[in-house]
Amino acid sequence: MANDVDTIAYVPTPTFTNVNSLYGNHFKFTLLNWPDVTFDTQSITIPSVTAAMQQYPNPFVTLPQVGDHLHYGTFDVVYLMDKAFNTYFSLYYWIKGYGFPHSYDEIAAFRAAQAARTPNPRPQVRELEKTRALLSILQADTNSTVAEIQYEDVFPIAIGEVTFETTQSDAPLLTGRVTFATSDFHVVLKS
What we know:
alpha+beta, Pnp Oxidase, Chain A, eight-stranded antiparallel sheet, 4 helices, single chain
């Protein structure tokens, strides 16, 4: 049975009984429609969540009050480069496809290719430029899922630089970094 943390009825446990730690290297990241990034993910950050704050002045001091908007920060994914450079190219194609086409033909080609990958037979434009993602946090002993973070409206906003160098004697694995934006995410606890 899953407990959705986003529900208003969620109440923390009255006493702390779980003394086991969670390991940071037991996770699985899935990016819908972009399996290259899914397979090669090395690390991921959970984005920050910031609540808006209202300020009400009175004659003596300004009083902070609870606001009514949340802002979700960006999150970074570090991935291994595959030998055919497909992971980087997929991300580059995605960001260039919605961000800086040179012609209307490029926009049409990008949207047609994305529509072919989308399960919806009549996708909206936002479905072609954005996707959903899932971060599964795993228990070390059993690899069972402890929690899932479900990201909505995910799209890349920056692809990090990639450095090739010949100064090291051992050939290091090449990694890249991509920064994603999201409009919302939901935490689902698994029990």
